[in-house]
Amino acid sequence: MSAVQENQREPIRVFYDARCPLCRRERRRFERLAGRRGDDIAWCDVTEHEQTLAARGVSRDTALRSLHIELENGRLIEGIDAYRLLMKRIPWLVPGAYIIGLPGIKQGLRRYYDHWVEKRLKRQGRWSQ
Hints:
Layout: E1 12-16, H1 21-34, E2 41-45, H2 50-55, H3 60-65, E3 68-71, E4 76-78, H4 80-87, H5 94-100, H6 105-123
Parallel strand pairs: 1-2
Antiparallel strand pairs: 1-3, 3-4
């Protein structure tokens, strides 16, 4: 089963970088667009949930570098697949979720995203190797 074919009403936990202004704006935008469809989403700041993530094998640095979503069954989805799962919860974003999952586009977005996150974390003094 694809990472974005789960029950769209299944409760999820989204681990995101709440210290990132863009990440906070994107969260608010998603909440606004999702409306009641977003009621089953728990937004969790990576820095406040380090132990929870570590128990699932995700280091703080890894969590800061990529969006992670925990499904109700405990499975973790990360990166572009996590964004696709969120987009699929909003009907008018479903076509975008399909497009960003296409071969070539998905890999290109991942490279761009990884580069952007590295620059942001280095600028903030939070990048570690």
